[in-house]
UniProtKB/TrEMBL annotation:
Protein name: ATP:glycerol 3-phosphotransferase
Source species: Candidatus Pantoea multigeneris
Keyword line: ATP-binding, Kinase, Nucleotide-binding, Transferase
Alphabetized SUPFAM superfamilies for the sequence: Actin-like ATPase domain
InterPro entries: ATPase_NBD, Carb_kinase_FGGY, Carb_kinase_FGGY_CS, FGGY_C, FGGY_N
């Protein structure tokens, strides 16, 4: 590689935005572009996006990044993508069967209920690591085939392609010459065998998906194809990495180092730990493939929490705090919890639409308990923020059932992590360092690091010098011991959410 050809451009195709960033050989972001994406909800519970618009926005931001740095400097492209969203298209024309069905969509809930009634959940969980849920791609792919004339027959003949968004992007970027997905995305379909690393015949039968319609599965790190046939992007740029966005963030934090567990704090939260084996018998959690780096598979143990940042937003709204301008609101969310020594015994369990991991109870509803005359807004805001840390701790407690799990540091990202009080409370509760990344494009960076590894033939260790610096919050171990009592009291409050009146 010449000294000038040293830029990796990473596309992060998310649900609400397509973003492209350009990173130089030292891992510095030298350019970035973003394009908003629209979401359609044609019926209650249905969430979808135009496959054509996903491509157009992605090509636009990639073209902008390439132009900004100069095509002659671009060594490779990388892709991180929204997970579980499924799309189908006709192989001959490349035209979509219809809209891409979003990961948020629940149109397959009835089919999933039937699978449970047929007592298929234990079998599916053992093979794929995933519980039955409308979230995952297999049921969405089945729906797509049902939605078009002769869908199953055409798919069996190889005339229909079914894929996750990484495969759809790759197909279009390569002019239809490459039909592949990576291990991380394949493992989110509920059609992939964690243990064999292949599409599973039993799962294909259960979901009625012909193998001929599915992409070739390749390591997340390696050459997938080259750009071809796009007016805005030069031909011949290699695509050297593809990976699901949450997995990419885990890689971007610490390259999958054992004991470095990732928590993304947003409306909800995703907690993911790198593990060495495909142990899939922890009912409360999903086991998935974090990535295949070209040398080995790294598995991921994941728990998804429904209401974390959303819990604070609800409490801020309910107490009138949300009427403040954004800057003042953010300052208040940091100052108010620190202004009181405790919640005065108040606990808020934000089961606003049910409980996610590790309890998974859709019928549970939120509870505020322990109210007394002295409780003020500061105590309630503090209770909402504390609820985030307790939920993260609950998931990590479930993770300890995995024989490979360890916790040396919690690597965090997302908007709520800007609250220093919250991060320190999380560190003290867990009794381990909390390491915060302030980089908004962490998923893109993770994909770019994988592309750099493949393109420059680097070891994973060699990538460490390219990692971004994290802010560190060290635990107060005396306070850690005291907070265990509060955590137990929180767990008793959770039991009240499932009480049926």
């Amino acid at each position: 590689m010449s000294a000038e050809k040293n830029i990796i451009i990473a596309l992060d195709e998310g649900t609400t935005n397509a973003k492209a960033i350009a990173l130089d050989a030292a891992g510095n972001v030298v350019a970035k572009f973003s394009q908003p994406l629209s979401i359609q909800t044609p019926r209650e519970g249905w969430v979808e996006q135009s496959g054509s618009l996903l491509i157009n926005a992605s090509v636009q931001v990639l073209a902008q990044a390439i132009e900004a740095v100069g095509a002659e400097r671009v060594a490779a492209l990388a892709i991180s993508n929204q997970r579980e969203t499924a799309i189908g298209w006709y192989r001959s024309s490349g035209q979509p069967l219809g809209a891409a069905i979003s990961w948020q969509c629940s149109r397959t809930a009835e089919f999933c209920d039937q699978l449970r009634r047929d007592q298929q959940e234990a079998k599916i969980k053992a093979v794929t690591g995933l519980p039955i849920a409308p979230l995952f791609s297999g049921a969405k792919m089945r729906w797509l085939l049902e939605s078009v004339p002769n869908g199953f027959e055409l798919a069996a003949q190889g005339e229909i392609c079914l894929g996750t968004i990484d495969s759809w992007l790759l197909w279009n970027l390569t002019g239809g010459t490459a039909f592949c997905c990576d291990y991380s995305n394949a493992s989110r379909t509920q059609l992939f065998n964690l243990h064999s690393g292949e599409w599973d015949n039993t799962m294909l039968d259960i979901f009625q998906i012909p193998r001929a319609a599915l992409p070739e599965v390749r390591p997340s790190c390696g050459k997938f194809g080259v750009t071809q046939g796009l007016a805005q992007i030069p031909d011949g740029i290699p695509i050297m990495a593809m990976i699901g966005d949450s997995h990419a963030a885990l890689f971007g934090h610490a390259l999958g180092e054992a004991g470095c567990v990732k928590a993304t704090y947003g409306t909800g939260s995703s907690v993911m730990a790198p593990v060495a084996s495909a142990q899939a018998d922890i009912h409360a959690l999903a086991t998935t493939i974090a990535w295949h780096d070209g040398e080995q598979i790294i598995y991921g143990l994941e728990g998804n929490i429904s209401h974390t940042g959303d819990a604070v937003a609800w409490m801020a709204d309910s107490t009138g705090l949300s009427e403040l301008p954004e800057a003042e609101l953010n300052q208040a969310l940091s100052d108010l919890p620190a202004s009181v020594e405790s919640t005065l015994g108040v606990y808020f369990v934000p089961a606003l639409t049910g409980l996610g991991a590790p309890r998974w109870d859709d019928s549970a509803r939120g509870v505020i308990c322990g109210l007394s005359r002295g409780v003020k807004r500061a105590h309630l805001i503090r209770a909402a923020l504390e609820s985030i840390t307790y939920q993260i701790a609950d998931v990590i407690a479930a993770m300890r059932q995995h024989k490979d799990f360890s916790l040396n540091a919690l690597m965090v990202d997302g908007g709520p992590t800007r609250n220093d009080w919250l991060m320190q409370y999380q560190a003290d509760l867990l009794g381990c360092p909390v390491m915060r990344s302030d980089l908004a494009e962490l998923s893109a960076v993770g994909a770019a690091l994988l592309a750099r590894k493949a393109h420059d033939h680097l070891s994973t260790d060699a990538l460490k010098q390219l990692l971004y610096v994290h802010a560190s919050f060290q635990p107060d171990m005396a306070r850690h011991a005291r907070l265990q009592k509060r955590w137990r009291e929180w767990q008793r409050a959770v039991e009240r959410t499932v009480h049926k009146f």
